């Protein structure tokens, strides 16, 4: 598996707003000696359309995704939410199209979230990273509930030299983003992220780490508006780091 070429499936928000997360994945795979490639024709996986009820548009995005990644040996993404879309929604979209369903299921079987791939497929919990500080971890909804990925990110964080992991209260409670949910119900979304931030602060950690940049973007925005000096990091950034830190 370690000699397999990884095709990077980069979430839209990472590509457009947080490219440093994608760059961190490349740095990490380079250190591990794992060749990786970025298929330049990739676009959105179709999740926003799917979640909003636009099944035809979501299917169009899914067809394109399958065409782009069909020849990939393995597909790794820094977003549990997008991986959940490929693994669970694509088969639903093509349930009445046997040929496309077979193609979708084949691609889905080779698609993994970053921590899931490192721990479950490669058997890695130490990747040569160091981070001198304390962090707490936020469980994103699709990753933890949809994919069952809970322990893998924590195992990787505990394998980082110098890092101390402090669990926050209700780490698996939604941050309130939920894609269009935060737009349609801003008051509820804000109340939810405020509760999440209160729990982050109560942990005393200098940074909060997660595996979905959508959640982290929501948390980062609210932390900034509240003037709280807590660092927000994607897991890939921590694993790519060497000697970086984020507080005591």
What is the strand and helix layout of this fold?
Layout: E1 6-8, H1 12-17, H2 19-32, E2 36-37, H3 47-51, H4 55-69, E3 74-77, H5 80-93, H6 98-109, E4 111-113, H7 114-121, E5 130-137, H8 141-146, H9 151-158, E6 161-165, H10 181-184, H11 186-203, E7 207-210, H12 213-226, E8 231-234, H13 235-240
Parallel strand pairs: 1-2, 1-3, 3-4, 5-6, 5-7, 7-8
How would you sum up this structure, described in words?
The protein is of the alpha/beta class. The chain has two domains: 6-120, no CATH class; 125-240, Rossmann fold, CATH 3.40.50. 52% of the residues lie in helices and 13% in strands. It is built from 13 helices and eight strands. It has helices at 12-17, 19-32, 47-51, 55-69, 80-93, 98-109, 114-121, 141-146, 151-158, 181-184, 186-203, 213-226, 235-240; strands spanning 6-8, 36-37, 74-77, 111-113, 130-137, 161-165, 207-210, 231-234. The strands form two sheets. A four-stranded parallel beta sheet has the order 2-1-3-4, with helices on both faces. Helix 12 (213-226) links the parallel strand 7 (207-210) and strand 8 (231-234). The protein starts with 5 loop residues before the first strand and ends in an 8-residue tail after the last helix.
CATH fold group of the largest domain: Rossmann fold
Q: From the helix content, strand content and strand pairing, which structural class follows?
A: alpha/beta
CATH top level class name of the largest domain: Alpha Beta
- Tally of structural domains: 2
Mean pLDDT: 93
In DSSP terms (H or I, runs of 4 or more residues), the helix count works out at 13
- Strand ordering within the main sheet: 2-1-3-4
Distance between the termini: 37 Å
The SSE string, one letter per element, is EHHEHHEHHEHEHHEHHEHEH
C-alpha-based Rg, rounded: 18 Å
> What summary fits the major beta sheet?
4 strands, parallel
Quickly give the CATH architecture of the largest domain.
Answer: 3-Layer(aba) Sandwich
Query: Helicity level, as a percent range?
Result: 40-55%
Can you count the beta strands?
8
- Shape by Cα distribution: globular
